[in-house]
Fold these 3 entries.
Entry 1:
Amino acid sequence: MTLQKRLVLAILSLALPVSLGAFSMDMVLPVLPEIARALSLTPGQIQWILNLFVLSFALCHLLVDPMADRMGVYFLFVAAAVGYAASSVCIGLSSSYALILFLRVVQALAACTTLVLSMALITQTFHSSYVTRGHTILSGVTSLGPLLAPIAGAAIITAGGSWRSIFFMLGLAGCAVLILFIRRGKVFRWHAEEEAPQQSYGKIAASPYFWRYAIYASTGMWWIFIFFSSMPFIVYSIYDQGVWALSLVFLAASVCFLAGGFLSAHFLRRISQGRLFDRCIVIQLVLSAVLLLTARTLPVPFPAFIGWIMLMQLNWGVYFGPAISTALQGFSESPVAATALQGFQQYASTFLVAGGVLIVFGRTVTDLGVMSLIVTALSACIGLFIKRRYGVEAAM
């Protein structure tokens, strides 16, 4: 088997495992109001179904490597697939809020494990340009997952399913991952990493360069988490629209995110990464303020609201991926550790910052503007402090 064919098979096999986190998080978004009604939960309680998943997903980034050293990559991957399938099905069968929260933790740990190990398998199985190509494609899959998963959830609801049906489908996805790796396991090299990435965490965490650009990646995650958490309530309750209107919003968001990614390559040929990211944050601040001021003075029509979302997503697409890449560029000697720490800080800060404002504020258009303005202003202040304190800038 040629390396090219082997890479294609590997990517096809890993596309689903790297997407489990996005599916677990975002397929349930269209049915959050239904879960609240079925279990008699408040919006704050519903938010913890999302928040706890994000926190657990963040913490697991630091646990996968030591677990793989003890259990072996193959066995850990199989255990994660089984755990994911079992926890998803049990959530679909449960009517206990406390049990659902516990199972969401298990689900998050399993989904994060398949994501981290999938990226590691590309590194362990291939070399040189094949590794770069594999990581680029899988990163694109993980970026599109959060935007397309809500549409899949909406399709299940339209076909007559309930919130329980979505978790049963997630359980089937876990079974599919297990079957794929029983059938395609020979494609991969299953040896464990020789160097423990934990040894490099302190060095990376002490780097102003890392935080200068990692904070911008986190800003994008804060925004998208607020966006996803608010949209079902705004579309259903404020605008009195149905599930396909929500799907339209997510589809438009997906297209604009992709367009922003293409535009970023053009912009980066003209200006440095740092300047581009700074300008994107300013644009996000302005857009947030415009929505807030408009919503406080007059009703925002639904088409205008979708237009605002499209502009935010276009801007997000310009800086999100490049910010992650730039943050990791200075740590070529310890790429696994840098990737793990980047993932941890991104999801942990999302839990603390975005999850915090979502608990404090409601689910209206005005609240969305307020929350977006708060998290963007926080990011701008942190980025400005690091830039002025340490004078960090990326290369052209």
Entry 2:
Amino acid sequence: MPEQKSMPGNSVSRLLFSLSGTIFAVAMDNVIKIIPMPPVTSLPFLPEGVDGIAAVGGKVIPILTLLNADSDARELVLLKYEDEDYGVRADRALRIADESVIASLGVAAQIVDITELVACVRRNGPRTSGSLPLDVERDAN
């Protein structure tokens, strides 16, 4: 999982959200919307960095890992990267602010770099350990 970066000096409008007591900030250019947390399905062999998948608006969206901690996240932040949609869990969306406002609030937010997250997932590829949870009976006829 890529390490989250400190707040850079350029001014970008960001969505602040919390997850398991950590404040994250993601560029608004990547945010599609925030929705109530849908059911997330875990599947075997998903790449490291993907918690599972969720059905959102007729699409199957990968849910990316921000923390390796259990969370009863109530919201899903939908993000766009290139032509693909991704989701990240959030306990609560806090506000939209540019970096000067975030700095004046004294908030120690971790930057969510969607480019780095997706690159990490693509590099990792499917997990190779585990077994398929299928018991397929073959018809002898």
Entry 3:
Amino acid sequence: MYEYCYHSPTNKELNLSQTQSGMVISSFWLSSGCMSLFAGWFSDKFGSRKVIVIATFIISLFSFLTRYGWGICCDFSDALYSWIR
């Protein structure tokens, strides 16, 4: 499994070492496990249907906002640079 991940086209394109690739994969699984605990707790407390609807809305919202991320980052850094200067 690790050899497949290391030799994936994404790792070659980003020039990731085997250690860096492992860190990316590990961070995904760690965050996935932590969020599963919270999702289970919210599901027990508020009901699975509400949690699924709200989670889908949040994921969709952040997916939509992803296209504006670089522009916001650049605007913020320009404003910060102008303020410091």
